[in-house]
Amino acid sequence: MEFTAHASRDKKVRDQLAGVHRSWPNFGVEALNRGREAGLVRHDIDVEFSASVLIAVVEGTIMQSRLAPESFDLDATVEPPSRRLAGWLKP
Predict the structure, then answer these.
(1) Is the pTM of this model over 0.90?
(2) Per-residue b/e over 30-63, b at no fewer than 16 CB within 10 Å?
(3) d(Cα 3, Cα 5) in Å, to the nearest integer?
């Protein structure tokens, strides 16, 4: 989170962070396409949208765990959405 805050004040850091964020969707799309090829991911899903949702869930979960650690149990929270997302993707 500090890196993101610093990026709002420093163009060089912002550009580096933007590069990381641009690569995330490509990674997600590639992973979902490989899952398709392996028969683990449905063929009727929009992989770009699904990759975006997965990234949002990961980033949102991490942010919640950092902003309110006393009221957010990261270990207990990761399993339910992971199972739900896997169910949406599974053929």
Answers:
(1) no
(2) eebeebbeeeebeeeeebeebbeebeeeeeebee
(3) 5
- How many C-beta atoms surround the C-beta of residue 67 within 10 A? 10
Chain centroid offset of residue 87 CA: 16
Reading the block at residue 57, the tokens are 């869930």
Sign of CA dihedral 9, 15, 20, 26: positive
- Reported residue count of the chain is 91
Q: pLDDT confidence of 36, banded at 50, 70, 90? A: very high
Calpha distance 61→10 (Å, rounded):
26
Sole residue written with tokens 């919640």? 64
